[in-house]
């Protein structure tokens, strides 16, 4: 269970980081 929670947390963190990068990338393009 702990491993699953850790994986979910990492996935959420990765998703947030990719979201921020995508937002910055869109700002650079515009």
UniProtKB/TrEMBL annotation:
It comes from the Bacteria. It comes from Cylindrospermopsis raciborskii CS-506_A. This is IS5/IS1182 family transposase.
């Amino acid at each position: 269970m702990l491993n699953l929670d850790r994986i979910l947390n990492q996935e959420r963190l990765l998703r947030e980081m990719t979201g921020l990068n995508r937002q910055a990338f869109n700002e650079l393009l515009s």
